[in-house]
Each structure stands twice: as structure tokens, then as C-alpha cells.
Amino acid sequence: MNRFKLLLLALLFLPTLIFAQEKQNNFEISKSIDIYNNVLKFLNMNYVDEINPAELNETAIHAMLRELDPYTVFIPESEIEDVRLLTMGEYGGIGSIIQYYDDNVHISEPYENFPAHKAGLLPGDAIMEINGVNTEKKSVSEVSELLKGQPGSELTLKIKREGEKNIITKTLTREKIKIDNIPYYTVLDGGIAYIILNQFTKDAAKELKDAFLTMRSENDLKGLIIDLRGNGGGLLNEAVDIVNIFVPKNKLVVYTQGKTPDQNRNYYTKHEADDIDIPLAILVNESSASASEIVSGAIQDFDRGVIIGQRTFGKGLVQNILPMAYNTQMKVTIAKYYIPSKRCIQEIDYSKKAKNDTLTKNDTLGAEFRTANGRIVYEGHGIQPDVKIEPEMLSTITAHLYAQNMIFKYANKFYREHKTIASPDKFEITDEIYNDFVKFVESQDFKYTSESEKDFEELVKTAKTEGYYDNIKEQLDLLEEELKSHKDNDLVNNKKEISDILKMEIVSRYYFQKGRIISALNDDPELKRAVEILLNSNGKNEYETILKGINN
Q1: Is 426 strand, coil or helix?
Q2: Is the dihedral of CA 415, 421, 425, 431 positive or negative?
Q3: What is the maximal distance between C-alpha atoms in the chain?
Q4: In whole angstroms, how far apart are CA 537 and each of 137, 430, 540?
Q5: Could you give the CA distance from residue 375 to residue 373 in angstroms, rounded to a whole number?
Q6: Taking the CB of the first residue and of the last residue of the chain, which one, N or C, has fewer CB atoms within 10 A?
């Protein structure tokens, strides 16, 4: 039998095989539903204690979805506000970041001109009660649900403020809280426009376009930097429209492939581009995901700009939010997306999850693809930047100061003691401020174990196991003393690094999120590198060299 006949037979039998598989799946679904209904019914009738069917049902659903990927989730009616935040960038609430420490949820950072700020809530305020509900030892998510609600509705908070004995009562009116897609944009020295894009919710593309065109109309721009670091993504159509600002009409930006034909879609640029010539740099890091990777990947594939930073997250999965019974919803992964070079940047194959639930990222380079100019790019590992910059790693002491809220608490203390400070771009941590911070840390119960101490403990343990300890105890004691003396100097040796973080934290007390951003820009190695490339300040014309693939 020749190959043509074999192929013909296969095609003839294919519909029958697909139908048989669907019929088998439908039977298994019906069978599973019957078993589940029986289990729940028998538990309700026979279990020794009263059960809560709704809670058990939700637990069962969550357990089932955990077998798939982390993006396919059930959304109960109580979490509908979270969906609005995900898609629209807005929710009903008081407008504040909160965090848990010392057995309570505390205000971490109120948003400027929203209810928390207007009511006078401050970073460090412990939330003790919400509308009569005691919140001690409640989690961040539990307190968040109590704070959210219909815009226009009132809530009463009881808070404990640092440095005050009495409980303070505050009445707030919830508002529609809209999180800015673009918290800040400016023109840097040399005529380089800079835009931070924090998320891809509704109108993100319009807001970015407006910011860019405003700066272009008022300045002789030499380049544009779009900062996608830490941007976890959002709406796919917003990503396509952002690419369209810099790429001509009718270009395929991304396409999706799923189980059914209606999930296979092509997304083209729909309008004439606003600027196809301005030199463009995109900043990314390992937290840049999904829509951020569509934008940075498409710009890279079209050779329209330079990608700078670290390898991105690697999320090439598309989710839809589907309405379900009783005002519940489900966010479901329906497809994978592919960018112009036809590569998928999804890092992890969740269909191959191990039985022990462990998933590891694969550092082996995937299949090769080519950009418009023929540069080599790779599939399956996020977006590899054109210019790699190693992330700055925090020292052990700085990480512990941050994790144990020493920097946060000192910033609160500083704010109580100083009515004003210099502007965000001018304020600096002086020796006087830093010495005061050191005294504050020494007055707290701050302890940490350095990596050297951990290694030393392992050395002692191994020496005892192998019988060497008694012979080298004197040398070990000297080494331990030497380690301790160096550790005692950690606050001095890491002053620059600690001061940078402390500066941003203090500035945010006076100038909120925008001030924190401006303060951080003064010492940002990735931003400085992007400016250098766009301005060709080293005389090497790196921008053109990179995009032409001369080094490939």
C-alpha cells in the first residue's frame, strides 16, 4: 500500500477517531459529576459533624484546577472586584497598599488623593477593626475583602498609630480606585523620553500614546524608553495597540493557537503608526510577563527597538474570563500566543507537571527563529534582551533590613519628625540621617544570620562528624570571632546600598508613588545604559549595530 493510500485512510478515519474521543470524554465527565454529587450528598447525610457544602465545593474546584496551570482559576462571587482590577485597573475601595506584620495588617502606602490619603491614614497604621469586625491576625487577603466594596459606601476603621496610645477611629467613603497604567513619564537629559508602563489594563495604549505625543510635541526627542520592568501584563489588545504606535498598519503582532478554531486568532496592527523612526529602547526584567512580552518580543522581532535588561518571565499563555452560574467566573487558559517570528515564549510546559508537583525552568536554549533583519532569537524562554544587564543583588543585611521592616519603620519615624524634605530628585540620605537610622536599628530587635555564618555552622558540624573539631577548635574560634567583627561592620560597609532604598522609602512618605519613582531614576544602571545607547554617547553607534545583527 503506497503512502497516498495510507494518508487517505488516515484522513477517512480521523473524524471517527475524534468523535469517539469526544464521546469517551463526555462519558467520563458525566461519570465524574455523578460520583462527585454522591460524595457531597453522602457527606451531608452521614458525616459526624455539620459540613459547609459551599466551602467544600470551592476547595474541590481549587484542587482540580491546581492540576492544570497557575493561571486557570475559579473566581467566586466575593472576588468579582478582583476581576475589575485585573481587566479595568479599577476597584471599589479606599486606595492603599497594605501589608502584614506584628500580628496585624498595616497601611503600607496610601494612594495620593484617594480615600485613605484624604482620611489621613499613614504608612504604619495598624488596622484593628473594620465596620465592627476585629482584624487582628487576619491575612492581607481577608482584610482586603473587608476594605473593598461599592463606591459611595461608607466604612469605619479603628487604627493603632505608631507613637500614639489611643485607638483612632476613621470614617471613609469608598471610591472607584483607578490604578494608573502610567504612573510617571518625563523627558530626560539629552532629549530622551521615558515612560513607565505598570500594567496593560483598559486604555493603556491610548495613555502611552498620549504621553509620547505630548512629549514629542514639546521637545526635540532623540529617543524613547518604555519601562516594562515588573509589569506582569494584562489585556492582549492593549499590547497590540502599543506596538502599533511604532509599527506600520497591517503587521501581524501576535497570534494565538488553542483547542478550537475560534481560539486561533491573528492580531494585526490596525492603524497607521505614529512614529516609525524614533530610536526605541524597552527595559525588561524577570517580572516582565505576558503582554509585556508581546510588546518587547514584537518590537524585537520587527527590529524596531533594542531590548535591555534581564530575560523576561516566559508566560505565553492566553486567558479568558468566562461567566458561570450564581455570579461566579472562571479564568481559563484557552491558547498559547506566538509573536511575529513565530516563536512561543512560554517557559514551562504545565502539561508535563511531575507527580510531586515540581516544575523547573529549563535553561537550555529552544529552537532558533529569525527577526526581520535575520537576527537569531530563541523560543520558549521569555524574551532574551539584546543588551543583558545583570541585576544588582542586595547584600544579606540589606535584604533582612527590608524584610524585617526596619527601613519601612524608620521612614515612618522620620516622617513624624520632619514636616518637609527636598524634592524627590534632590533629597539625599546625609550622614546625620544615616547615623540616626543605625541607632534606630540598634534599638530594635534586629537579628540576622549572614551567609558566612551559615557556612561556618556547616563547617563546624562537618568537623565534628569527621572527628576534626577538637584538633582545630582554636582556629575555628578565631574564625568565628573574625566573622563577627566583619558582620558588625555590615551597616557601614553597605551604607550606599541601604541609603538608596532608605531614600526611596522616605521620599514616598511625602511625594507618594511618583516621588519614589523619581528618586529611583537618579541611580538606575539599566536606564543609564538605555540612554547611552539611544544617544550613541560612546561613539560606537550600538543602536544600529544591534538591530542589524552585526554581532550575530
Answers
A1: coil
A2: negative
A3: 91
A4: 54, 32, 8
A5: 6
A6: N
Bridge partners for 258 per DSSP: 335
Residue in this structure with the C-alpha cell 491558547, named with its chain if needed: 335
Give which of 451, 452, 469 is closest to 460, Cα–Cα. Answer: 469
Residue 332, C-alpha cell as written in the block: 481559563
> Which cell numbers in the block locate residue 341?
517570528
Angle between helices 495-521 and 406-417 (to 10 degrees): 70
pLDDT of residue 434 exceeding 80, the answer is yes
Read off the C-alpha cell for 53: 457544602
Q: What is the pLDDT of residue 537?
A: 60
The per-residue pLDDT for range 338-352, each reduced to its tens digit, is 999 999 989 888 877
Q: SS3 of 178, please?
A: strand
DSSP 144: H
493: pLDDT strictly greater than 90: yes
Q: Which of 524, 296, 289 is nearest to 389 (CA)?
A: 524
| CB contact set of 490 (below 8 Å; sequence gap of 6+) | 395, 396, 397, 450
Q: Assess contact for 246 and 275: CB atoms under 8 A.
A: yes
pTM: 0.86
Q: Provide the Cα torsion 88, 89, 94, 96; round to 10°.
A: 170
What residues does 257 pair with on adjacent strands?
336
- 106 bridge partner residues: 99, 126
How far apart are the C-alpha atoms of 386 and 312, rounded to whole Å?
12
Distance (Å, whole) CA 316 – CA 526: 25
Residue 375: partners with Cβ closer than 8 Å, 6 or more residues away:
303, 547, 549, 552
Cα distance between residue 389 and residue 346, in whole Å: 22
Encode pLDDT of 154-189 as tens digits: 999 999 998 898 999 999 999 998 889 999 999 999
Which amino acid is it at 13?
A: F
Judged by DSSP in three states, 200 sits in: strand
Number of Cβ within a 10 Å radius of residue 324: 13
- Helix, strand counts (H, E) of the chain: 17, 21
The answer to whether the Cα torsion of 236, 238, 240, 246 is positive or negative is negative
Whose cell is 495620593? That residue is: 112
Q: What is the pLDDT, as a whole number, of residue 18?
A: 45
Mean pLDDT calculated for residue range 225-235: 95
Q: How confident is the model at residue 81 (pLDDT cuts 50, 70, 90)?
A: low
Contact at 8 Å (CB) between 293 and 340? Answer: no
CB atoms under 10 Å from CB of 347, counted, come to 19
Q: How far apart are CA 454 and CA 465, in angstroms?
A: 17
> Cell numbers at residue 281, please?
529602547
Q: Is 510 helix (H, G, I), strand (E, B) or coil?
A: helix
Residue type, 96: S
Residue 32's H or E segment, with its range, is: helix 3-46
Burial of 262 (0-12, 13-18, 19+ CB in 10 A): exposed
pLDDT in tens, 509-542: 999 999 999 999 988 999 999 999 999 865 568 9
